[in-house]
């Protein structure tokens, strides 16, 4: 059970997840009436659902409302900070104390027995019991979360967020999870089962952003190292997208499924790396990934991003599919091409139709695009990502 909980706690996805049988929520009409949507209002509704159902007195967030209601997962909590930072950036300052208080709670995940530190994947709701593996993707994403909080805070809070983002990056560098197996790359976690694109893409984001902020050349050099490995080993030139992961013995087995989540991460990684090294060609690379996503990973009938390219996968998930919206918004912020916002907005609308309970304003873990086959789990991380992308969209739509 402990192993199952820790694995579920990581921000990496598993295409073989089998949600429990359908449950919860009314299936939406096939052709709902057209209404005017306020994405800021939607973000606030999601935030209210989270604080009413997931928030604890410790300012932690329970993992879900069903099977893991007494567990607290690191990347779920970090994602809620990310969501609250987006609300603050959209003009809702009431989210700021939630963000700062959960940041304080995050210290409970930090490994204080190891001088290198690093975040464990899970603790109890009161912050006790941190143990198990540490994940590259969790720590890299958390560093990026803190840098967004750094952008919108001042004084000692601002410095604290920057210092902890640097601590996350320094743990990556000193974790011994980069080695020469498969020609380089970060392992997913301290058990070293595989090397995924998303873990490395998030690390690349963090190193590039920290170099831009601090000017410390170690961060630039690590961003370059990760970028080179990803380009040489994980980029599929036939589709213009990044593959899932490499594992196994010898040269390694490449799993060539393409995920929305992975490629949205790589859009942002290329944008940030290009800014860090002052190379405009990386914006063109990011735009090319965006165009490939909108060809290969887009369901034109439902106007939303698919989970992955495995033809047996017909379900969608708010966090992993929702990440596509963030990628498109990041592209729009760079080139002001409205087509990216159209994809970003349509994807939110598709997820609202597929996954949102119109009465509670909560989101189900998995469902079909039509709102069919909704799994009963209501995961905290899915609420966080929907709050985040709705708040991000509210600045433009």
TrEMBL record:
SUPFAM superfamilies: Six-hairpin glycosidases. GO terms for biological process: carbohydrate metabolic process. Gene3D superfamilies: 1.50.10.20. InterPro entries: 6-hairpin_glycosidase_sf (IPR008928), Glyco_hydro_76 (IPR005198), MUG_Protein (IPR053169). This is Uncharacterized protein. The lineage of its organism: Bacteria, Pseudomonadati, Bacteroidota, Sphingobacteriia, Sphingobacteriales.
């Amino acid at each position: 059970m402990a192993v199952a909980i820790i694995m579920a706690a990581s921000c990496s996805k598993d295409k073989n997840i089998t949600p429990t049988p359908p449950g919860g929520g009314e299936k939406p009409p096939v052709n709902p009436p057209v209404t005017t949507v306020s994405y800021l209002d939607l973000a606030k509704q999601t935030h209210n659902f989270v604080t009413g159902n997931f928030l604890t007195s410790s300012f932690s967030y329970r993992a879900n409302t069903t099977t893991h209601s007494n567990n607290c997962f690191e990347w779920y909590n970090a994602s809620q900070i990310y969501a609250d930072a987006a609300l603050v950036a959209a003009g809702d300052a009431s989210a700021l104390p939630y963000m700062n208080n959960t940041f304080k709670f995050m210290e409970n995940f930090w490994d204080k027995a190891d001088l290198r530190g690093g975040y464990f994947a899970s603790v109890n709701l009161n912050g006790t019991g941190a143990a198990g593996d540490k994940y590259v993707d969790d720590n890299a994403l958390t560093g990026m979360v803190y840098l967004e909080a750094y952008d919108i805070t001042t004084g000692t809070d601002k410095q604290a967020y920057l210092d902890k983002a640097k601590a996350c990056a320094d743990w990556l560098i000193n974790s011994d999870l980069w080695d020469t197996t498969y020609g380089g790359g970060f392992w997913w976690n301290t058990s070293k089962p595989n090397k995924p694109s998303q873990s490395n893409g998030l690390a690349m984001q963090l190193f590039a952003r920290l170099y831009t902020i601090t000017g410390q050349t170690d961060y630039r050099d690590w961003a370059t190292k990760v970028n080179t490995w990803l380009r040489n080993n994980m980029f599929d030139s036939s589709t213009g997208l990044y593959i899932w992961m490499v594992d196994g013995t010898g040269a390694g087995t490449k799993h060539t499924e393409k995920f929305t989540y992975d490629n949205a991460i790589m859009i942002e990684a290329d944008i940030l790396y290009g800014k860090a090294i002052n190379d405009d060609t990386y914006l063109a690379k990011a735009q090319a990934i965006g165009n490939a996503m909108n060809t290969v990973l887009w369901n034109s009938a439902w106007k939303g991003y698919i989970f992955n390219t495995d033809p047996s996968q017909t379900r969608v998930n708010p966090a992993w599919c929702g990440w596509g919206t963030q990628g498109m918004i990041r592209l729009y912020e760079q080139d002001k091409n409205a087509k990216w916002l159209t994809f970003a907005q349509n994807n939110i609308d598709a997820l609202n139709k597929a996954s949102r309970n119109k009465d509670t304003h909560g989101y189900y873990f998995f469902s079909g695009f039509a709102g069919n086959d909704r799994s009963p789990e209501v995961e905290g991380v899915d609420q966080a990502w929907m709050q985040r992308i709705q708040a991000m969209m509210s600045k433009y739509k």
